[in-house]
Design a protein that fits this description.
Length: 243
């Protein structure tokens, strides 16, 4: 969809932009969390290969579910629908409402913060050149976003007729790499925090997660009676030269 077909979000009052920030942050949080779980679980499946292979069906579907859920949220973030809330329209809203980022307005918003002036000086004023680059990045002018939309339209959200009996697999012709997903998530977080700082000097965390619970699952499975018995039988067969 051409940028001229997209319009900014309705912003009746500056306070509503703060709500837009929270909505975007939530979408990013879920995309990033599911993707991180997918990556960490994938790593642990390799680290505990024997355990993972013992319940291969479960882990294959678990990994696939987390990856697909992360993709659903990423599709929403980089959607191009003219009625949807997404990064592109969020940035067009910034472009069309630059007055809410005026230093006087920001200072009033942060009047209870004794460090507001120092923060504002450190952050600086809204950079229109960077904004234009951000809008371009979030649009179909970005090949990665264009490819993500192709996946959205033909695979994730729809079963495209063109993809039913193709000779060359879709993912080989239009690969969506983990590197691309990492970059799209990272850049979206940068955009979120860039304009959050311009608006009220605050930033959002990508989330602090530890994986002790997931480590515990794999370590516990190593000692599960069924797996211990399976491992013992495998060692006996190997000792007899039958495995």
């Amino acid at each position: 969809m051409a940028e001229r077909d997209l319009k900014s979000l309705k912003l009746e009052a500056p306070e509503k932009f703060g709500k837009f920030l929270h909505v975007l942050r939530d979408e990013l949080y879920w995309a990033n969390t599911y993707y991180d779980i997918f990556k960490e679980a994938s790593r642990l499946c390799k680290e505990h290969e024997n355990v993972a292979n013992f319940s291969r069906f479960f882990w294959n579907f678990t990994l696939q579910a987390h990856c697909q859920t992360a993709l659903v949220h990423l599709h929403r973030i980089y959607d191009q629908n003219k009625e949807g809330f997404h990064l592109h329209r969020f940035l067009l809203t910034v472009r069309d409402n630059k007055s809410i980022f005026d230093p006087v307005a920001v200072r009033e918003r942060r009047k209870s913060d004794p460090h507001a002036d120092d923060l504002m000086e450190s952050i600086g004023e809204l950079d229109s050149t960077q904004l234009d680059l951000d809008i371009k990045y979030a649009s179909l002018a970005n090949p990665k976003v264009e490819n993500l939309k192709r996946w959205r339209d033909r695979v994730t959200f729809h079963k495209d007729e063109r993809e039913l009996f193709r000779e060359k697999p879709f993912e080989q012709e239009f690969p969506l790499t983990f590197g691309d997903i990492d970059e799209l998530l990272s850049e979206a977080f940068k955009v979120l925090n860039r304009y959050s700082q311009y608006f009220d000097t605050t930033i959002y965390s990508t989330g602090c997660r530890e994986w002790k619970d997931m480590n515990f699952v794999f370590e516990a499975l190593e000692h599960h009676p069924a797996f211990v018995r399976y491992r013992h039988e495998a060692e006996l067969l190997k000792g007899l030269g039958l495995a």
